[in-house]
Amino acid sequence: MNYFIVLLISIGIFCLPVFNLQCEQCFANPCLNQVEITCDENAAGDTVAQLVPYYQIDDGTLKLPFHFECLSLNASIEHVTNTSNKSVLIKGCIFKQLNSCNLSLRPVYKSKSQQDCFECSGNLCNHDSNINGSKSNLSNSSLIFVVINVILIALSQTR
């Protein structure tokens, strides 16, 4: 019986960050005023609204249930009518189903000379220190709780 209770607590603690995912949000380059947000449909919609001017987005890919990730996109794109590059920085919560790092540019943009983009699912995993592509699939606190609960399970079985 104790094993079952410890297992339920372990699963609950392990899954908690998925339901309360925290991301950093910033839509300006340079990013001077980052804020921490909790992912939900509205926060992901705000990030999509920032992508729409530059990328083609198929709303048909967004189906219930929504799953969220953090996004960090730093791109240099070129408009077809001039040769100057535009720097785009978008950080925030995004719909996982959108696959944001693989979106196609709108036809008015002819190239992306540089793009650093990643989606991740750990709390605040899109922070500046992670912008060079390191990904976090579990937050550190979740990992610690899992390890502690595995130890508790092992100890409860030795009795």
Explain the layout of strands and helices.
Layout lengths: L1 H18 L2 E4 L9 E4 L2 H11 L16 E12 L5 E11 L13 E12 L19 H18 L2
Antiparallel strand pairs: 1-2, 3-4, 3-5
Helix pairs in contact: 1-3
Describe this structure in words.
Residues 4-18 and 129-141 have low confidence and may be disordered. The protein has a three-stranded antiparallel β-sheet with strand order 4-3-5. A two-stranded antiparallel sheet has the order 1-2. The chain contains three helices and five strands, in the order αββαβββα. With 159 residues, it is of the alpha+beta class. It has one domain.
Mean pLDDT across the residues is 77
Order of helices and strands: HEEHEEEH
Shape call? elongated
Query: How large is the radius of gyration?
Result: 19 Å
Most strands sheet: 3 strands, antiparallel
Distance between the termini: 13 Å
**Total of helices:** 3
Structural class: alpha+beta
Which key phrases capture this entry?
two-stranded antiparallel sheet, single chain, 3 helices, alpha+beta, 159 residues, elongated, three-stranded antiparallel β-sheet
